[in-house]
Structures are given as structure tokens and as C-alpha cells.
Alpha/beta fold hydrolase (Pseudomonas eucalypticola), 277 residues
Amino acid sequence: MIRPTAETTPAGTSYLATGQGHPVILIHGVGLNKEMWGGQMVGLAPYYSVIAYDMLGHGASPRPAPGTSLGGYADQLLELLDHLQIPQAIVIGFSMGGLVARAFALHHPTRLCGLVVLNSVFNRSAEQRAGVIARTAQAAEHGPDANAEAALSRWFSREYQAANPAQIAAIRQTLASNDPQGYLTTYELFATQDMYRADDLGHIQVPTLIATGELDPGSTPLMARQLAERIPGAQVAVLDEQRHMMPVESPRLVNQVLLDFLAHALTTQNHAKGIVA
């Protein structure tokens, strides 16, 4: 696969696009950028048009204005779809990107035909909420890399860290190089918006997959099941022995789960439109 070249929307959102077919949008997690999706871009591009972009405050995209809501992050995705003249896409969000994907489904329901939430948060316990609020305070005082070592130990297995030191070092550098204000604005949303419009989730009417890793300490299987219970017909996948960064650590495994779901979502859409394959 020829490596795609980053392009920019009129509003400044930086994105990568590759492949052909129905559009699939990838939204990264807080502190990361569109480059985290390399394994998925390779694995999905033979079958789909795959677009990964930098969230507000991350990578080469502009900062969010102070006080920007999750709705503002969803509007960034809307502008990207309008720029690319995509009427409907399947949206895949990882961690913080999962919150953005959920918000997009609620704010712009006619613009997506499938939803995937990977390793994301919902209905944190009091202890979990206290932990993430403490990390937010540390980031506000010491900058984006204040929690890097602890984050990497939560995100990756020890075996993967030991076998891939250069990649782990690159991710650590990505965390450290984030714009402080953009990172903090985004992290505050990540820390506080796990129940964003939770009572409206029943209005999501597209095929939905909620997936996480069996060993993900911050985006637990219980969270995945509770979130799926709120969305009509949502599927749940808990991947054995996987931690938070399973799209990076185990791309083939995650890609197979995604490909199975994407085929289901498009078949469902075609049946709804009366199209017979």
C-alpha cells in the first residue's frame, strides 16, 4: 500500500485517506493522533475507503477553543465529511474518539450508517472517576506527558512494550509533544463526559459495535456491556487478553472483528434500502 499523504480541510483538520469503497472514519484517543491507525488503514483499505484524522488539539489539526464541548468535536467530523462530500460513513472511535463518535451519532444521525466504539468509557465508578480527575489535575500542572509512564503501562502488555521499544518511545514522544491547552481541553472532556447524553443513546438507530479488551483497566468489559445495553441492537465484543491499545498491539485481531462488523453494517443498510446483494 502506498503511504497516504496528509491533507487538510478548509477548517484545518489534518487527515489521511486511502483505499476505495464505502467510507470508514477512524477517530483516535486523547494524546494520540491519526498515525495510531496504521494497522487498520492497511487492513481495511483493500475493502473500504479509510479516513483517519487528527482531533482538535492533536497532531496537525487546530486547537479547540477553550470550553469546546463534545458537540464541537462532533462538528469537526461533520466538516470533514462535508469537505470530502461523504453523505454517510461508518464511524469508528477509540477511547476519547469513542466519545466523539457517540456525540456524532447523536448530533448528526443522518450522516452515519454504522458506529463502532473501541476501548471507550461509560458510567465510571466513583473510584474510576476520582482517578481520571486526578490525572487531569496532573496534566494541568505538569503538561501532557505527566502521566505517560503510567498510561503506557495501562495501555500495553509488558511483553509488547519489551518487544517494541522504538514504537513505545515514539508514542511517549507523541504524548509529550501535544499542545498543552489542546490536550487539556480534550482530556477534561474525556474525564467528565462518559455519561454524555446517556438518556438519548436509545435514539441511535444504526448498527453498532461496542468492543474492548478483557484486560483494559480503564475501558472495562462492564462499561462496554452497559453502553451496549443503551443502544438498540448493539453488539458487544470483548477480546481475550487484550489491553487498551489493542488496535495497535493486535491489529490483525481487531481488524477481523471490524471487517466482520462492517460487512454486517452495510448488509443491514442495504436491506433497509431494499438493495439485494
